[in-house]
Amino acid sequence: MNTQYIPKTLTSIFLLSVVLLSSCNKKKETVETETEETQNVLLAEWTGSYGGTPAFDKMNVTDLKPALEEGMKINLEEIDKIANNTEAPTFENTIAQMERSGKELDRVFSYYGILSSNMSSPEFREIQKEMAPKLSEFRSKISQNEKLFQRIKTVYDNSLKTPLDDDQQRVVQLTYEQFAMNGAELDTEKKKRYAAINKELSALYTNFSNNILADEEGYVTYLTKEQLSGLSEPLINAYAKAATDRDQEGKYAVTNTRSSMDPFLTYSDERALREKVWKTYYSRGDNADTHDNNENIAKILKLRKERVGLLGYDNYADWRLQNRMAKNPENAMKLMNAVWPAAIGRVAEEVADMQAIADANGDNITIEPWDYRYYAEKVRKKKYDLDSDEVKQYLQLDKLREAMFFVAGELFNFKFTPVEEGKVAVFHPDVKVWEVNDKTSGEHIGLWYLDPFARTGKRSGAWATTYRSHTTFDGKKTVLGSNNSNFVKPAPGEPVLVSWDDAETFFHEFGHALHFFSSEVRYPTLNGGVRDYTEFQSQLLERWLSTDKVIDQYLVHYKTGEPIPKALVEKIKKAATFNQGFATTEYLASALMDMKFHLADPSNIDVDAFEKETLEALKMPKELVMRHRTPHFGHVFSGEGYATAYYGYMWADVLTSDASEAFAEAPDGFYDKDVASKLVKYLFAPRNAMDPAEAYKKFRGREANIEALMRDRGFPVPKS
Q1: Where are the beta strands (DSSP E) in 368-455?
Q2: Residues 456-486: tens digit of each pLDDT
Q3: Is residue 319 domain-resident?
């Protein structure tokens, strides 16, 4: 989506609905506008314990359209009242009132996000398709409100002469920049065109994401008992359950999601089936049918370029990155180009190792993309005597959750306590809830919702979001945060065993949740973030998975309960940089492609051809593919949150590697209280109340540098 000014929660939840990996929310208090008997439940103030919680058990998709329409009406009335105030513009009567606005609509979008990402249905998608252009028009009515912008500009100009409190100054700056970046200063005709482009884009984004979901739901690879060679018993049981859930009793279903595809490609001995599963997954949105996304992408690129052209920018990337840490596409490309040669060089080494094993086995093949995971696993066993399937026996999802709670207690002083079933409404029986408190004072901080399993109607991947964020300017609001994953649901009584990569992802998304819970900001806008910075905190938390305290206490065998053997731990640590060529290259290929698409002239672009030619020019190894091929690159084309910003994971990884060394150098390592205190104070609690670069320097005492990242990945460190 575009980043025009709209109520903070609306921004974040709409971003969630168009495939962002994290989002943030704002306050949820309100005054009733209708009687309890007649009010739409999606608009209603939240009631019950913990400061009120969403009525997910009463959520009905038929209530969505009228709730959205009423919420927009109320919000526009609030905005008009602010814009038409006859008093001189001040922070309190303009900016603070904007921070208070949109509470009803915020609540609606908490439900909208669930219906879009966790519980999508054909009925919802029709409403989404109908409402997308209306929501775009609504946002344009706010961002193009001339009287409102003039009041904002006056407050901004005055604040430069007479500074406000630091956090107020930050809110004013962010609000002004958001309006200015989104056409508030355009003339009337250009504003009309700007709004029309946004309306058209909103429909394209919705269509793009629905096409991906349709291909994920529409393609399943069914196996017979004779086709299970190489697969572990828990994985076989999970595939059997997936088939049974689809009325295919006696078969085994590999669904068209990463969590189902990845382990199959890693362990299955059936090469022809690996190829089929691989092609099915990586051709999502690219099947020359009604769900093909190539035309959508071409239109999106043209419209984005035209829109920023109205503002005087040569390309979308220049416009988008002006207020990110990278500042411009040249800086982002410089980082990626510094890492890319080492990454593809490592791929060549990895492929040579795999080909040698294939040749020694007499397999008579040349390594193809559907072979990479399978033979990489064999190389791992040979080089490090490390079997990923053996490691999985010690990675139980429930134990990993306990480990995350332990880390949160040690670093953040948080305590997680299960909430009695039925006390808080949930949207699906799989969802469980925990109360979060301060370990020392017992103070209530919020609730954590966990939705761990894949299901029909749930988008793929893993993400975090909030239903309510911490603020204090109108009374303290506690946090309602969630983590959402797509683990394959096991057969009844079976544990959920995950790969090391999936365990890291689980910790990663929990890092976003801890960022939510740590917030100490006054104003809702400050719970947002800078895209190439907000992934840093979550990437950093991944590092605690491999700490001794977590390994010794929580990595136990799912059958025997025995701790993971020290010898196996040593193998894991020795293999820490194994397969980094694959991991870095598949990610960087996507990030580079994102940037190059938005720097190119889209006038007559052939999306498939551009992808192919660009990768060839980059010397992309033929043995692997982009992590997100363009036709299903939801981060970039089902909204705008990561457009020309997918590089942000690498930017954040530089910070992560550098910050990790701060812990490694501390007297008590990753559990050093002094470093942890600075971590929370400067990198988690401020959210977007402080410039990210300044916040990092306060934590580290200097800027981060790329050398730590290269060391982390086992790549040659560039000479200064």
Answers
A1: 414-418, 432-438, 444-453
A2: 999 888 999 999 999 999 999 999 999 999 9
A3: no
Give per-residue pLDDT as tens, 273-313: 999 999 999 999 999 999 999 999 999 999 999 999 999 99
Residue 37 structure tokens: 């008997």
| Residue 325 to residues 532, 534, 616, Cα–Cα distance (Å) | 6, 11, 29
Residue 662, judged by CB atoms within 10 A of its CB (0-12, 13-18, 19+), counts as: middle
Give the amino acid at 456.
Answer: T
Q: What is the pLDDT of residues 138-195, one digit of tens each?
A: 999 999 999 999 999 999 999 999 999 999 999 999 999 999 999 999 999 999 999 9
Task: Give me the phi and psi of 457, to 5 degrees please.
Answer: 95, -5
Contact (Cβ atoms closer than 8 angstroms) between residue 380 and residue 575: yes
CB atoms < 10 A from the CB of 617, how many? Answer: 9
Is the Cα torsion angle 374, 375, 380, 385 positive or negative in sign?
positive
Return the structure tokens found at 239.
């595939």
Domain with residue 129: its CATH number is 1.10.1370.40
The two tokens of residue 272 are 């022809």
Judge whether residue 24 has pLDDT over 70. no
Q: Residue 42: inside a domain, yes or no?
A: yes
- pLDDT exceeds 60 at position 433: yes
Integer Cα distance of 538 and 534 in angstroms:
8
Look at residues 196, 247, 197, 188 and name the one whose alpha carbon lies nearest to residue 220: 247
HSE of 579 in the Cβ direction (CA atoms, 13 Å)? 24
Query: Has residue 13 got a pLDDT over 90?
Result: no
CA pair distance 416, 393, nearest whole angstrom:
25
Contact 28, 477 (CB under 8 A): yes
Quote the pLDDT of residue 38.
58
User: Number of folded domains in the chain?
Assistant: 4
Q: Which residues pair with 444 in a beta bridge?
A: 437
Domain that holds residue 335: 329-387+578-713
SS3 402: helix
Distance CA 432, CA 420 (A): 9
Q: Structure tokens of 195?
A: 């709004």
pLDDT surpasses 50 at 18: no
Q: Are residues 466 and 493 in the same domain?
A: yes
